[in-house]
């Protein structure tokens, strides 16, 4: 390549390479979540996380509608707009992560009414929330290995969109299949 | 990342040449090339190789980038909204681009000469005879059936032969001719 082509490639990677890294990566990848806050996934904590996600502000980037990044044993998910839900779910399915993103809509089953595993999930099962490089809320779920999602269970991530608050939050572990959509409990 | 790099390396020269046939300004060629690959990065997740080759996909982006550039010019906007930040070119990069632009002088003259053709025919000739795309790839870029493209290509070449200089009328490759008289 010429110097121009090499320099341009370097500039592209510096300024826009994160968009490529945001696409699903099959191998352990660079950690994209900053300022992680690890939460227990009890019902109360889960609802709190979802509520916090709904209130989170953010503007969608111009291109990708979601990002799914696999780390060592965990997966980080961001959804920037409603059109990214299907893509995020497809990416999660491809890597066999039992994590489903479900849109929040009024009239859908309440997230608190979904069947929870009995006994309760392993206490070390954890969900982290953070902010991805592009400023969006991201949720990191421990999927595989010790403390991961128990077999037969599914982690539901609730995606809520609206003016100024497109965001995904941890909805909690459920038993069986996730519904097509969920509703949130009224704010206290 | 590696997949995109391979796509970039395989196509950046052709894309640069594509713009060098349209502009003799090194900075403009550099900006349009950069915009094309920024756009490619932004939509790389949606690229489906089953629907066409990487080259066809990249050239489809390049055409849209150039169309937006022309539209901005025609509307005399004070500045085109750049997808990539304008980068100051180093002197040797400018030199490389000038060499590229000079190398495309013939192609640029031909593109200018092609203006007598209908837009649809012009695009076909340029993609196949100048950019070197396979007819199937050019059909993908233009969103038309390969058979339709072949028809347009035959028609356009016939018109060019008719209108061209005696040398071109003898049936030589249009891309190898210094200019096309119209």
Q: Can you offer a commentary on this structure?
A:
The complex is a heterodimer of chains A (188) and B (182). Chain A is of the alpha+beta class and 188 residues long. Chain A is 23% helix and 28% strand. Chain A has three helices and eight strands; from the N terminus they run αβαββαβββββ. A five-stranded antiparallel sheet of chain A has the order 1-5-6-3-2, with helices on one face. In chain A, a hairpin with a 5-residue loop joins β5 and β6. Chain B is mostly helical. Chain B is built from nine helices and no strands. Chain B has helices at residues 2-20, 26-42, 54-74, 91-103, 105-113, 119-130, 135-142, 146-163, 166-169. The longest helix of chain B has 21 residues, at 54-74. Chain B is globular, with a radius of gyration of 17 Å. The termini of chain B are far apart. Chain A binds chain B through residues 1-5, 7-9, 11-12, 15-17, 19-21, 23, 62-64, 87, and chain B through 1, 4-5, 8-9, 12-13, 16, 30, 33-34, 37-38, 41-45, 84-85, 87, 89-90, 92-93, 96-97.
Provide a quick synopsis of the model:
The complex is a heterodimer of chains A (188) and B (182). By secondary structure, chain A is an alpha+beta fold. Chain A contains three helices and eight strands; from the N terminus they run αβαββαβββββ.
Rg of chain B (C-alpha, Å): 17 Å
Question: Could you name the ranges of chain A where pLDDT drops below 50 across 5 or more consecutive residues?
Answer: 24-62
* Beta-strand residue percentage of chain B: under 5%
What general outline of chain A do the C-alpha atoms trace? Answer: globular
SS-derived structural category of chain A: alpha+beta
List the topology elements.
The complex is a heterodimer of chains A (188) and B (182).
Chain A: H1 3-22, E1 34-40, H2 43-55, E2 66-70, E3 74-79, H3 84-94, E4 99-103, E5 126-131, E6 137-142, E7 153-160, E8 167-175
Parallel strand pairs in A: 4-7
Antiparallel strand pairs in A: 1-5, 2-3, 3-6, 5-6, 7-8
Chain B: H1 2-20, H2 26-42, H3 54-74, H4 91-103, H5 105-113, H6 119-130, H7 135-142, H8 146-163, H9 166-169
Helix pairs in contact in B: 1-2, 1-3, 2-3, 2-4, 3-7, 6-7, 6-8, 7-8
């Amino acid at each position: 390549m010429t110097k121009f082509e090499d320099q341009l490639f370097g500039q592209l990677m510096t300024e826009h390479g994160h968009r490529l890294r945001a696409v699903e990566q099959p191998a352990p990848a660079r950690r994209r979540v900053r300022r992680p806050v690890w939460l227990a996934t009890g019902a109360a904590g889960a609802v709190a996380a979802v509520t916090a996600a709904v209130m989170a502000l953010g503007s969608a980037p111009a291109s990708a509608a979601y990002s799914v990044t696999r780390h060592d044993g965990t997966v980080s998910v961001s959804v920037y707009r409603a059109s990214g839900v299907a893509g995020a779910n497809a990416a999660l399915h491809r890597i066999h992560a039992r994590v489903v993103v479900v849109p929040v809509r009024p009239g859908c089953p309440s997230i608190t009414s979904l069947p929870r595993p009995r006994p309760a999930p392993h206490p070390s099962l954890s969900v982290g929330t953070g902010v991805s490089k592009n400023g969006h809320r991201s949720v990191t779920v421990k999927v595989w290995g010790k403390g991961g999602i128990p077999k037969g269970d599914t982690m539901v991530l609730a995606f809520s969109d609206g003016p100024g608050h497109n965001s995904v939050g941890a909805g909690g572990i459920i038993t069986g299949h996730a519904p097509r959509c969920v509703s949130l409990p009224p704010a206290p | 990342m590696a997949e995109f790099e391979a796509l970039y390396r395989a196509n950046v020269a052709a894309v640069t040449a594509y713009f060098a046939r349209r502009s003799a300004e090194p900075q403009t060629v550099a900006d349009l090339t950069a915009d094309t690959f920024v756009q490619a990065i932004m939509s790389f997740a949606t690229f489906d190789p089953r629907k066409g080759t990487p080259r066809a996909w990249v050239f489809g982006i390049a055409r849209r980038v150039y169309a937006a550039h022309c539209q901005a010019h025609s509307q005399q906007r004070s500045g085109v909204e750049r997808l990539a930040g304008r980068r100051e070119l180093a002197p040797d990069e400018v030199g490389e681009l000038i060499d590229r632009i000079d190398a495309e002088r013939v192609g640029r003259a031909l593109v200018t000469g092609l203006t007598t053709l209908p837009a649809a025919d012009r695009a076909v000739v340029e993609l196949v005879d100048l950019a070197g795309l396979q007819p199937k790839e050019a059909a993908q870029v233009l969103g038309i059936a390969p058979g339709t493209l072949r028809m347009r290509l035959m028609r356009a070449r016939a018109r060019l032969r008719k209108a061209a200089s005696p040398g071109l009328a003898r049936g030589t490759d249009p891309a190898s001719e210094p200019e096309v008289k119209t």
